Amino acid sequence: MDSASGSINEDPSLATASAPPSAASQQGGGESSSSPAPPSRYESQKRRDWNTFLQYLKNHKPPLTLARCSGAHVIEFLKYLDQFGKTKVHITGCPYFGHPNPPAPCSCPLKQAWGSLDALIGRLRAAYEENGGRPESNPFGARAVRIYLREVREGQAKARGIPYEKKKRKRPAVTTTATSGVNVSSASTQAVDDVGGSAGVGGADDSGGGTAANAGTATAAAVTPTATTTSV
Predict the structure, then answer these.
(1) Does the pTM exceed 0.85?
(2) What is the DSSP track for 80-135?
(3) pLDDT for 42 beyond 90
(4) Is the N-terminal amide bond of 62 cis, ω within 30° of 0?
(5) Are 76 and 143 in contact (CB under 8 A)?
(6) How do beta strands 224-225 and 182-183 pair?
(7) Confidence band (pLDDT; 50, 70, 90) for 100?
(8) What is the pLDDT of residue 35?
(9) Cα separation, 148 vs 76, whole angstroms
(10) What is the rounded distance in angstroms from the CA atom of residue 65 to the CA atom of residue 139?
């Protein structure tokens, strides 16, 4: 499937046969408590992707070894997978170029979606190092592969009229609490509310730092230490 989950539509000839059930699973019963937990969906997909890539290297003309694999070979593999894609990518001369919802079908090619390719490279990059590869020689992390993925993202965004925007990370708000024998009266609390309202706390400014600074200043101005006297 060529979907948001990042799964890749593969060549059926590259699919590897699944392992036969073990004797313990066929007997069914006995020591179920000692059986290992099944792998997660991500781990299963990563293993399938890794086996598919190794099979691709084996079928390559001429055959390639993993040690000789470079970023150029990874890009070649990604282009090879395009023929099994299900995402319509309009060419420049198509009347629906840049149209997110074309009203009629066209003869433009189907390709792998950028999101699927990006997720695939992430899984293969992790699998390479898990199988003994060195991070500095990881072909899936090569600069050429990153450039290719960026070009695919930009090209598909223009062709499909669907921009890919990165999610902005929200900075956590920083709060300061004073706990050294300081009492805040109801009048002081009212003063904080008045200052906060006039300083724009909770307004449209989403910078975070200014808001926290204004709130901290107002609190410091409104807090007054109290002295306690004890009569003997």
Answers:
(1) no
(2) HHGGG--EE---TTSTTTT-SS-SS---PPEE--HHHHHHHHHHHHHHHHHTT--G
(3) yes
(4) yes
(5) no
(6) antiparallel
(7) confident
(8) 75
(9) 11
(10) 12
Residue 129: name the closest of 118, 119, 140, 120 by CA. Answer: 140
Confidence of residue 201 (pLDDT cuts 50, 70, 90): very low
The helix (H) or strand (E) run that includes residue 192 is helix 186-199
Residue located via tokens 């006297």: 229
CA atoms within 13 A on the CB side of 210: 9
The residues, ordered by sequence, that sit 6+ positions from 49 with a Cβ below 8 Å of its Cβ are 8, 120, 123, 124, 127
Above 80 in pLDDT, residue 55?
yes
Place of tokens 């009229």: 161
Closest CA to 7 of 49, 50, 43: 49
CB 26 within 8 A of CB 17: no
Helix or strand holding residue 26 (H, E)? helix 23-27
Question: Is the pLDDT score of 207 beyond 60?
Answer: no
pLDDT band at 123, cuts 50/70/90? Answer: very high
For the stretch 25-57, what's the b/e string if a residue is b when 16 or more beta carbons lie within 10 angstroms of its beta carbon?
eeeeeeeeeeeeeeeeeeeebbebbbebbbbbe
Q: What whole-number distance in Å separates Cα of residue 101 and Cα of residue 54?
A: 38
